[in-house]
Design a protein that fits this description.
- There is one protein chain.
- The protein is an alpha/beta fold.
- 25% of the residues lie in helices and 15% in strands.
- The protein starts with 12 loop residues before the first helix and ends in a 28-residue tail after the last strand.
- Helix 5 packs parallel to helix 8 and helix 6 crosses helix 7.
- It has a single domain, classed as 3-Layer(aba) Sandwich (Rossmann fold).
- The protein is globular, with a radius of gyration of 19 Å.
- One of its GO terms (biological process) is lipid catabolic process.
- It is found in: Secreted.
- It comes from Gryllus longicercus.
- InterPro entries: AB_hydrolase_fold, Lipase, TAG_lipase.
- Its main location: secreted.
């Protein structure tokens, strides 16, 4: 989750770390602002009990320029299968050639590779929400990429710098899985914030083409063109915009760009203590609800870019599902307008609803 506002010069390597003292100070102040929030969803944005005590001295900077060794000891890959309330978790072991065959991986299921963003980690709200949604559906193998040690608070410049190293090592892991029998044509890379750009960067380190990337409000601050997600990174690149122009990228990014409530600010976040951060993170919730077609939202065409506001233009093509079931052949900008918070299949922190208010719909 991006909690650093405003574009600044991107530092490079350890020298860049020394040059980013002011940036780290801004980020630390933002972390302090997050503390003391109320409500289940906002409490989840604390991103760990120790976040407020972190300093710029805790930031990790990889060398970059493809000079780092893979596998990286601070980047972890796990497979999650089975019961969403008590899933089986297995560490991907690339030293064992038959690891995939001997794991709990189900060949008949589709595959999701999820990459969190800034401040994320193994148990952050974005990962837990999406993992629960896919496993509850019962027809997905979920691979999680945990690079939290390279993207921790208050180290946003370091996290941006480390994206390419994470992508390079993850590309090797994905190549290992593909060589072990993982069907690329049934595999989607899902990334939130900085994780969306990591999904795109992975394409630079593969000898094959990824089938699909679902980008959840790709991060805007400090993202230069060479690191930015684009339609060339997969056969289909689908983007959900919920905070465009602030924490999220503006304009067209993929083959399909979904403008949710105008793509800039979510109406149910307007009274939140951090409305932009609330809007930025809700992209995860929209994808979670889309895993089942019974709760997926329908999007209608709305021209070349997100309008200012929730208005829609005249129909240019047929409506489509937004999210997991978006057709691979779809192209263009599509709009969704709603005033209700997105439904979340598992983690109630995402919607801020109490247990008594939450009713699970039937799976499609």
């Amino acid at each position: 989750m991006c909690v650093l506002a405003g574009p600044i010069a991107r530092p490079v390597g350890r020298a860049g770390a020394a040059a980013s003292v002011a940036v780290a100070a801004v980020a630390l102040n933002t972390v302090g602002d997050i503390q003391g929030r109320t409500g289940p969803f906002e409490a989840a944005l604390n991103l760990g009990d120790g976040a407020a005590n972190a300093t710029r001295d805790d930031c990790v900077w990889r060398r970059g320029m493809d000079r780092d060794r893979c596998p990286d000891p601070l980047v972890h890959y796990t497979l999650h299968t089975g019961d969403p309330d008590a899933p089986r978790v297995e560490v991907v072991d690339m030293t064992q050639r038959d690891w995939l065959r001997r794991s709990s991986w189900e060949p008949s299921f589709d595959n999701v590779l999820f990459i969190h963003g800034y401040g994320g980690g193994e148990d952050d709200v974005t990962g837990s929400v999406l993992k629960g949604a896919y496993l509850r559906n019962g027809r997905y193998n979920v691979f999680m990429v945990n690079w939290g040690a390279l993207a921790r608070l208050p180290c946003y410049p370091a996290a941006v710098h480390n994206m390419r190293t994470v992508a390079r090592c993850t590309g090797r892991m994905l190549s290992f899985l593909r060589d072990s029998g993982l069907p690329v044509e049934r595999t989607t890379c899902v990334g939130h914030s900085l994780g969306a750009h990591v999904c795109g960067l992975i394409a630079h380190y593969l000898t094959f083409r990824m089938q699909r990337i679902v980008a959840l409000d790709p991060a805007r601050p400090l993202i230069r063109l060479q690191n930015k997600l684009g339609p060339a990174d997969a056969t289909a690149v689908h983007v959900l915009h919920t905070n465009a122009g602030h924490y999220g990228e503006m304009g067209r990014v993929g083959h399909v760009d979904f403008c949710i409530n105008g793509g800039r600010m979510q109406p149910f976040c307007e009274n939140a203590s951090k409305p932009d951060l609330c809007s930025h993170t809700r992209s995860v919730c929209y994808l979670a609800e889309s895993v089942s077609t019974s709760t997926a939202r329908i999007a209608t065409p709305c021209g070349r870019r997100c309008p200012s506001g929730v208005r829609q233009t005249s129909r240019l093509s047929d409506p489509i599902y937004m999210g997991q079931h978006t057709p691979l052949s779809a192209a263009g900008s599509f709009c969704v307008a709603n005033v209700d918070e997105p439904y979340c299949p598992q983690d109630l922190r995402c919607c801020g609803k109490s247990n008594t208010e939450w009713i699970a719909p039937e799976e499609s």
